[in-house]
Write a structure and sequence with these properties.
The complex is a heterodimer of chains A (about 150) and B (about 400). Chain A has about 150 residues and is mainly α. Chain A folds into 3 domains: about 35 residues, no CATH class; about 50 residues; about 50 residues, no CATH class. Chain A contains 7 helices and no strands. Chain B has about 400 residues and is of the alpha/beta class. Chain B has 2 domains: about 160 residues, no CATH class; about 200 residues, Vaccinia Virus protein VP39 (Rossmann fold, 3-Layer(aba) Sandwich). The N and C termini of chain B lie far apart (about 45 Å). In chain B, about 50% of the residues are buried. Classes of the chains: A mainly alpha (about 150), B alpha/beta (about 400). Chains A and B meet through α1, α2 and α3 of A and α1, α3 and α4 of B.
């Protein structure tokens, strides 16, 4: 990473007009673009929800949602290319009905996916259901110290 | 009931110095344009509903009076869940748009610089040791890290390429395939209302990468058009873009609009600014006005495209909504500039009140396939219907 890219990572743009060119891996050095893309702009970031935590989660969720849309668009391209090459018709996809085995495998995938998404809520409920398994770790440490 | 789709990103005209986009990068912009369209047409109107139905009644009940200014509206609205969701989402998409755009241009920054070099010509004048105005260095306009003026290495244009390729997302594709709807609109309006006007020299101040400068040059091919800006990457990219698009009668010069001393008095028949003044500063704007008055010929035309100023008949709610971008989309001078009266500004550049004019102009969008009589939802400051003020000196 170039000196200048490092400046960017620390959020400073001042005086960067005439920065040296990094010779390695494009303009900024390997992987620097990943970090520079997400640089913060000047000024304190406003939070609109009552809790910053909620807004943080919203931002992460929206980024994930964007990638779902990106995958959907890519899949759509694949379907259309397959159709244009005569390998598959999109109508076949629409009309596709899985046999029993395939249907069950897919349902299982959906079930696992839903469970992964909502894991934290499942665990919060377990915490309420089994208080004896929900002791603070400091308490457990102290108890183990006596074992 | 109708829902208008934004044009797909691939409708953008990709000139020779435009950044390369992968399939997924294009899809990311399509997602964001649609997200913005939904937020601006479905969620944003919820602010007005929440304001009318609960924020205002609650305030009036509690205080025994109505709002006294836009700041009280802002304070009351900040607690409303609809507003919070809208504002948080809008801020989020602005930041996503920057990150996505920067990811595209940063990975090819060197290639972009090389492309721009290939299309370089004699239409660009950059200054050694140019001092970027303080007001520009003080904030990253539109939440663009590095704003208009930062080059990350000699010859770098990544911030300009990001701006060029991503404005589509912010505007929901309403500015046309070359993102030049503003410039086209003003050129069309001038030709329509002043068919005998034959400007020989046109100055576009704060021209950026020339989105709105090139339409002036194309509408008046016999004129010499000069675009000035403080941002080196914008000018570099803009000059190459003009060459790539074959527009010959335009020149890009790095210059601080507060000091245009290299132009003689009464040089220009027409001085234009487009969405520029609100990105200057409280002292700079007056110096710029004075300079405009100096370089503008007697009998010349001066026009500024801006958002509407706040007037006594504009509701505090509308003022509040129009303030939003100033603070949360990092165009902070906008909030203060709204309180200036355009007649006074024009008087400063030598246009007397009796020759002052103010009009509304809608962006010319070559991508707009929708019916023209559709009701446009006012999305304060984000609908391409612009306030133009100015006059004849």
């Amino acid at each position: 990473m170039s000196v200048n890219a490092k400046n960017e990572l620390s959020g400073s743009h001042a005086g960067s007009n005439q920065a040296p060119v990094s010779e390695q891996n494009g303009a900024f050095g390997f992987g620097a673009d990943i970090l520079m893309a997400g640089n913060k702009s000047k000024g304190k970031r406003p939070y609109f929800f009552n809790s910053e935590e909620t807004e943080r989660v919203l931002n992460i969720a929206m980024a994930a949602a964007a990638e779902v849309a990106v995958i959907r668009e890519r899949l759509d391209t694949i379907e259309r290319l397959l159709e244009s090459k005569g390998l598959l018709k999109q109508s076949e996809i629409e009309a596709y009905e899985p046999d029993d085995k395939a249907a069950e495998e897919r349902q299982l995938w959906h079930a696992r996916f839903a469970a992964r998404l909502l894991r934290i809520i499942q665990q919060e409920i377990e915490a309420v259901a089994k208080p004896e398994e929900n002791k603070p770790m400091q308490q457990i440490a102290d108890e183990i110290n006596e074992m | 009931m109708q829902y208008q789709l934004p044009p797909v990103w691939t409708k953008l005209y990709r000139h020779a110095v435009f950044p390369e986009f992968s399939h997924d990068e294009r899809a990311r912009y399509n997602f964001l344009a649609n997200l913005n369209r939904f937020i601006s047409t479905v969620i944003a109107p919820g602010n007005q509903i929440a304001f009318q139905n609960r924020v205002k009644p609650a305030f009036e009940k509690e205080k025994g009076r109505t709002f006294a200014n836009r700041h009280e509206v802002a304070e009351a609205m900040s607690k409303d869940p609809v507003y919070q969701s809208w504002a948080a989402l809008r801020r989020c998409t602005m930041e996503m748009r920057q990150q996505n755009g920067r990811a595209v241009v940063m990975r090819q920054a060197k290639e972009l610089a090389d492309k721009v070099k290939q299309y370089a010509g004699d239409n660009l004048i950059l200054k050694k040791n140019f001092k970027v105005p303080e007001y520009l260095r003080h904030v990253d306009n539109h939440l663009m890290p590095g704003s208009y003026h930062t080059s990350y290495f000699e010859g770098d244009v990544s911030n300009a390429a990001n701006y060029d390729s991503g404005l589509f997302v912010t505007s929901g594709g309403m500015l046309g395939s070359l993102t030049d709807g503003g410039g086209k609109a003003i050129a069309k309006w001038v030709k329509e209302y002043y068919p005998d006007f034959r400007p020989k020299k046109i100055l576009d101040i704060g021209c950026g990468l020339g989105h709105n400068t090139l339409p002036l040059a194309e509408a008046f091919p016999d004129a010499e058009v000069i675009g000035i800006d403080a941002g080196e990457p914008m000018l570099r990219y803009g000059a190459a873009r003009a060459n790539a698009l074959g527009v010959k009668n335009v020149k890009f010069i790095q210059m601080d609009a507060e000091d245009m001393s290299e132009f003689e008095d009464e040089t220009f028949d027409w001085v234009q600014t487009t969405m520029f003044l609100h990105e200057t500063g409280g002292k700079a704007i007056h110096k710029i006005m004075k300079e405009i008055g100096r370089v503008l010929k007697k009998g010349g035309l001066c026009l500024h495209i801006e958002q509407p100023q706040y007037t006594p008949d504009m509701s505090y709610y509308e003022q509040f909504m129009r303030d939003w971008d100033a603070y949360y989309n990092a165009e902070p001078y906008w909030g203060h500039m709204h309180d200036l009266q355009p007649e006074d500004l024009m008087a400063e550049c030598g246009i007397p009140k009796e020759r002052f004019m103010q009009i509304g102009v809608k962006a010319v969008n070559d991508l707009d396939t929708q019916k023209k009589d559709d009701k446009i939802t006012e999305d304060y400051g984000r609908t391409p219907i612009w306030n133009v003020f100015g006059g004849w000196k």
